[in-house]
Design a protein that fits this description.
The chain has one domain: Rossmann fold, CATH 3.40.50.150. The chain contains ten helices and nine strands. By secondary structure, the chain is α/β, with parallel strands linked by helices. The strands form two sheets. Strands 5-4-3-6-7-9-8 form a seven-stranded mixed beta sheet. Bound molecules: S-adenosylmethionine. S-adenosylmethionine binds next to helix 2, helix 5 and helix 6. One of its GO terms (molecular function) is heat shock protein binding. InterPro entries: Methyltransf_16 (IPR019410), Ribosomal_L11_MeTrfase_PrmA (IPR050078), SAM-dependent_MTases_sf (IPR029063). Belongs to the methyltransferase superfamily. ETFBKMT family.
Amino acid sequence: MALSPGWRAFAPFPVNCRGALQKAVRSSGLPLFPWGHCPWRGTGSFLDPEMKAFLEENTEVTSSGSLTPEIQLRLLTPRCKFWWERADLWPHSDPYWAIYWPGGQALSRYLLDNPGVVRGKSVLDVGSGCGATAIAAKMSGALRILANDIDPIAGMAITLNCELNRLNPFPILTKNILDLKQGKWDLVVLGDMFYDEDLADSLHQWLKNCFRAQRTRVLIGDPRRPQFSGHGIQHQLHKVVEYPLPEPTRRENNGLTTSTVWEFQP
Ligand SMILES: C[S@@+](CC[C@H](N)C(=O)[O-])C[C@H]1O[C@@H](n2cnc3c(N)ncnc32)[C@H](O)[C@@H]1O
């Protein structure tokens, strides 16, 4: 399947590093759900009805083509108008949340296959996107979860995706967590977050602080993107597991063939 011109423009990597976009996105984080600390209220009712309708109209519910068929997600697929449409007609910021990235897929697979890693633990998913890794953590018995993404629309997509998987919604934070005082977490997970050099530097520093201050366990999912493979963080990683990517994910990611879970051990 050839990728549409619109899709190519959305896909920020590995085609092109969209540093300027990333900076713009990074500075725009606002808390989406001030009720985030109160996770047991119903989903849906907190979604702006117009945005909810937009998301439902412009995504498809799918569980196929990824490493985790047990998780259903609303994603942009070839059956969606904007898969084929010119990217500049998309009325919002680039929909990273509408893609289930290879790094997140590997992390989620690992958590589902190894529930002991999260069971009874507090888990922070940084750059949660569609929320799949946070959902995998919840399915595997995590006690406390925070999904963090600076894109408020990602927050809404995560809420819808919790609902799809019959999960009570967990808190979602759309502030830039890198600017906040460190919280205390048993585990921090990051799927496909090392796609921009500046962001990679900031994350590396922040993760070092997390580890030093709290001995927090850190797991990173990445399909060996250049900004990750060429980064200084490589000297502080231990390979946990590598998964072959399913064919549809390979096609959508310009020939990436595997995705790996790494443990950060500075
Ligand atoms: C490539 S996507 C990965 C999404 C998801 N983890 C996955 O693997 O499918 C990167 C996500 O990180 C978010 N992001 C970028 N900078 C961030 C930051 N400083 N803090 C939190 N999220 C960020 C973007 O909005 C985007 O949803």
